[in-house]
Amino acid sequence: MSEQVSKVEKKRISILGCGWLGFSLAKRLLSSGITSVVKGSTTSEHKLDQFAAAGIEGYLLPLNPEAGLNAGISEPFFESDIIVISIPPRMSQNVAGNYAAQMRMVAEAIRKSPVKEVVFVSSTGVYRDLSQRAVESDVQLPEHSAQPEMVAAENAISALRPEKAITVLRLSGLLGYNRIPGKYVKGQKDLTTGDIPVNYIHRDDAVGIIQAIIQQGIQNEILNITAPFHPTRAEVYVDSCSQFGWEAPTFKIPEQRPAFKLISGDKFSKTYQYEFKYPDPLLFHYQLEDL
């Protein structure tokens, strides 16, 4: 047995937000042998049977800052050694300030719990489109960000240091399986963003990276998580459409190139050992049905 695996064997892991990413992570952790107990939270009661079938302890746990957490459910959920927070803010549907308030409530629950290590899943959407390479130190405060509330949420969780070890992962656009980029643009005409670089990460790699971080140890870092290669949107859209026989979008050259960002993953690669399964978004695995 390796030393890295023994670090987390038998530890309890809770996943707050056991959705498209979190459920896949939970199944991977259970099959990896590094833990025997994985807890997953959801706001959809019908998912509890799915969790149970996969061997995940399910918790129906709404995050309503006004009502607060149901102690009878939240206390056993947070009775863990490691917690992964994987709750997308859905900014377009979110009441301003609600997501940050949710994370402050979660941070208080973690502060009172035996949890020692936290992985907070954030987004590279925090970076502004400045037509340059984006590194972690570019955004530290909400006022520096394209998504101020996400950074406020990051900071609410990071404020648990030094009592808790916190790693913030800023994930690029999550793709793979039934999340297919061409699906969202098929048949569209005269797109003007065809020559700007993409920042994507395949779900299998996102899951693998979180597992690697848990095994290798939380490092109290903010890390960009992105596939190492950045082809253009046109290349990715056309290629993924061709895989499924969809009409590819068309592109035109704009009078002025749209602003963009190119996410740097260098800090992660220097901090942890991980070999990408899908380093190139042009080679991502897709299928119409999810697994």
TrEMBL record:
<dbReference type="InterPro" id="IPR036291">
    <property type="entry name" value="NAD(P)-bd_dom_sf"/>
</dbReference>
<dbReference type="Pfam" id="PF03807">
    <property type="entry name" value="F420_oxidored"/>
</dbReference>
<dbReference type="InterPro" id="IPR028939">
    <property type="entry name" value="P5C_Rdtase_cat_N"/>
</dbReference>
<feature type="domain" description="Pyrroline-5-carboxylate reductase catalytic N-terminal">
    <location>
        <begin position="12"/>
        <end position="99"/>
    </location>
</feature>
<dbReference type="InterPro" id="IPR051783">
    <property type="entry name" value="NAD(P)-dependent_oxidoreduct"/>
</dbReference>
<protein>
    <submittedName>
        <fullName>NAD(P)-dependent oxidoreductase</fullName>
    </submittedName>
</protein>
